[in-house]
């Protein structure tokens, strides 16, 4: 009987890498994986070995990934660290794209209106009290922020809120919340400011210029002199 | 073919009905054929402000349900020669008695016979509001220089901007008390217009005569000398497309003299 090589194991200094053939059926693969796992590493007392799985051009659903993880995890000293695929589902790709996109909106967000975008938001206009803008990423407002802004609303602590005039009723970043002072003093202009989460998990408002150092990742421009 | 303008505000008590009655009167004074439509079913009072309460036979709900013809329900304002009419709201039912489609049809029909149809909208953003805006081509948002009124105006502008059949709304700031604005105790006109960022159609100062005249059933716009009346007449002319500068507020115009007069006025009591 010809023994196919659907699962190739390679040892590296970081642990074990499993290359899974992307041409065979999933059942075949699973069968062979089980065989090989059971054959090798008989010794349960050896230290933990991290396993990386590379599936090539095969797309595995979350369910299948869990199945494989379970299978490998059945050997006590193996632990799956990472599963990498060359392919993603359209859905996932769209989400990636949306999350990394900047959506530009030129409008006034009035009381009672809510704008939500998956990625970054560039709003050309004001957010009036009672209005709300939400973004999975950063929020940039060319205008007055007088309502509520929620950046990183799916749990991104690195997200920032930038506004030409920062006089919000509330700022939210990820799970942090900060409300405005009960009164804005007349002599502070609150122009060109940004808000971010600092080391002690508090939202702070600061000059726009600090962003460059605090969140260098905001700069996406590559090249130039 | 006439134009239907809805007069709305979101918040109650800012002067929608007063504005409707006075703009209607002012437009009629400018020889336009005007029909005022009260959509505040169940809480009608445009008829009271116009002094036409005792002439109502049929109402809006009767027309919508086909119990009478439109012209039977229209109440004529005797002070004008066939220029100003009122389609009163029903007092016995509520807002759900008519649908936006019925109002739209009704307004379309009125547009054939009138130059302007002014629709007085009830407070709120529910059924009554939806009825009122259904047939409108334009909108006037009335607000007062109070934060709460401005907030509601903002909300209503947001809703109006979603109505594709209505042109961008215009703003009327009502009941301005110039001495309070001057002392910084009240929002000023600039502040409100930048905040709401829509075109300003006019400002109306707060005047005791407005209340007196509406109690008497005779809109202030009939008075040629009152400053609130002049403000409403100016708004009417702006609706017709004339460009008229804003009336300066009392503080800039009358200055010291009026304040001295006021001072003695208070003292003499």
Automatic annotation (TrEMBL), chain A:
Pfam family, one: MinC_N_1
Residues of the Septum formation inhibitor MinC C-terminal domain: 106-205
Stretches assigned to the Septum site-determining protein MinC N-terminal domain: 7-83
Alphabetical list of SUPFAM superfamilies matching this protein: Cell-division inhibitor MinC, C-terminal domain
Domain of life: Bacteria
InterPro entries: CAP/MinC_C, MinC, MinC_C_sf, MinC_N_1, Septum_form_inhib_MinC_C
Keywords: Cell cycle, Cell division, Septation
UniProt-listed GO biological process terms: cell morphogenesis; division septum assembly; regulation of cell septum assembly
Assembly description: Interacts with MinD and FtsZ.
Family: Belongs to the MinC family.
Record function comment: Cell division inhibitor that blocks the formation of polar Z ring septums. Rapidly oscillates between the poles of the cell to destabilize FtsZ filaments that have formed before they mature into polar Z rings. Prevents FtsZ polymerization.
Protein name: Probable septum site-determining protein MinC
Source species of the chain: Bacillus smithii 7_3_47FAA
Gene: minC
UniProtKB/TrEMBL annotation, chain B:
Keywords: ATP-binding, Cell cycle, Cell division, Nucleotide-binding, Septation
CC terms in the record's Gene Ontology section: cytoplasmic side of plasma membrane; cytosol
Residue ranges of domain AAA in the record: 3-160
Recorded superkingdom: Bacteria
Spans traversing the lipid bilayer: none
Signal peptide coordinates: none
A Pfam family the protein falls into: AAA_31
Residues that, per the record, bind ATP: 11-18
GO MF, one example: ATP hydrolysis activity
InterPro entries linked: AAA_dom, MinD, MinD_FleN, P-loop_NTPase, ParA/MinD_ATPase
GO BP terms: division septum assembly; negative regulation of cell division
Stated role: ATPase required for the correct placement of the division site. Cell division inhibitors MinC and MinD act in concert to form an inhibitor capable of blocking formation of the polar Z ring septums. Rapidly oscillates between the poles of the cell to destabilize FtsZ filaments that have formed before they mature into polar Z rings.
Family: Belongs to the ParA family. MinD subfamily.
NCBIfam families according to UniProt: minD_bact
Protein name per Swiss-Prot or TrEMBL: Septum site-determining protein MinD
Organism per entry: Bacillus smithii 7_3_47FAA
């Amino acid at each position: 009987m010809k023994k196919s090589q659907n699962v190739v194991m390679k040892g590296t200094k970081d642990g074990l890498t499993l290359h899974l053939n992307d041409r065979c059926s999933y059942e075949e693969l699973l069968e062979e994986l089980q065989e090989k796992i059971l054959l090798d590493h008989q010794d349960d007392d050896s230290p933990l070995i991290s396993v990386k799985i590379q599936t090539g051009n095969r797309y595995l659903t979350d369910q299948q990934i869990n199945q494989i993880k379970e299978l490998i995890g059945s050997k006590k000293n193996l632990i799956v660290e990472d599963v990498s695929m060359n392919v993603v589902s359209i859905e996932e790709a769209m989400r990636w794209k949306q999350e990394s996109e900047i959506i530009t909106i030129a409008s006034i967000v009035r009381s009672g209106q809510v704008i939500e975008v998956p990625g970054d938001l560039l709003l050309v206009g004001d957010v009036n009290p009672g209005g709300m803008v939400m973004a999975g990423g950063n929020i940039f407002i060319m205008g007055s922020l007088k309502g509520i802004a929620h950046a990183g609303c799916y749990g991104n602590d690195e997200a920032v809120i930038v506004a030409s005039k920062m006089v919000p009723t509330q700022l939210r970043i990820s799970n942090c919340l900060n409300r405005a002072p009960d009164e804005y003093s007349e002599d502070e202009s609150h122009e060109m400011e940004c808000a971010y989460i600092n080391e002690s998990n508090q939202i702070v408002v600061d000059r726009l210029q600090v962003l460059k150092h605090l969140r260098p990742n905001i700069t996406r421009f590559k090249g130039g002199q | 073919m006439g134009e239907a303008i809805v007069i709305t505000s979101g918040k109650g008590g800012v002067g929608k009905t007063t504005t409707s009655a006075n703009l209607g009167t002012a437009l009629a004074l400018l020889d336009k054929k005007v029909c005022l439509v009260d959509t505040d079913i169940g809480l009608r009072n445009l008829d009271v402000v116009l002094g036409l309460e005792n002439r109502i036979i049929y109402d809006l709900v009767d027309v919508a349900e086909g119990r009478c013809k439109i012209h039977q329900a229209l109440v004529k304002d005797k002070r004008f020669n066939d220029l100003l009419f009122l389609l009163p709201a029903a007092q016995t039912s509520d807002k759900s008695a008519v649908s936006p489609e019925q109002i739209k049809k009704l307004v379309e029909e009125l547009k054939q016979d009138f130059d302007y149809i002014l629709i007085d909208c009830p407070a709120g953003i529910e059924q009554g509001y939806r009825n009122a805006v259904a047939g409108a081509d334009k909108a006037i948002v009335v607000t007062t220089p109070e934060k709460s009124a401005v907030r509601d105006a903002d909300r209503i502008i947001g809703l109006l901007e979603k109505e594709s059949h209505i042109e961008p709304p215009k703003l009327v700031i009502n009941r301005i008390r110039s001495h309070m604005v001057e002392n910084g105790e009240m929002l000023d006109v600039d502040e409100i217009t930048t905040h709401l960022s829509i075109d300003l159609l006019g400002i109306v100062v707060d005047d005791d005569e407005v209340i007196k005249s509406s109690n008497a059933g005779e809109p202030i716009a009939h008075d040629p000398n009152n400053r609130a009346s002049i403000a409403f007449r100016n708004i009417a002319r702006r609706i017709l497309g004339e460009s008229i500068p804003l009336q300066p507020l009392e503080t800039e115009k009358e200055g010291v003299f009026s304040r001295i007069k006021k001072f003695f006025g208070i003292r003499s009591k």
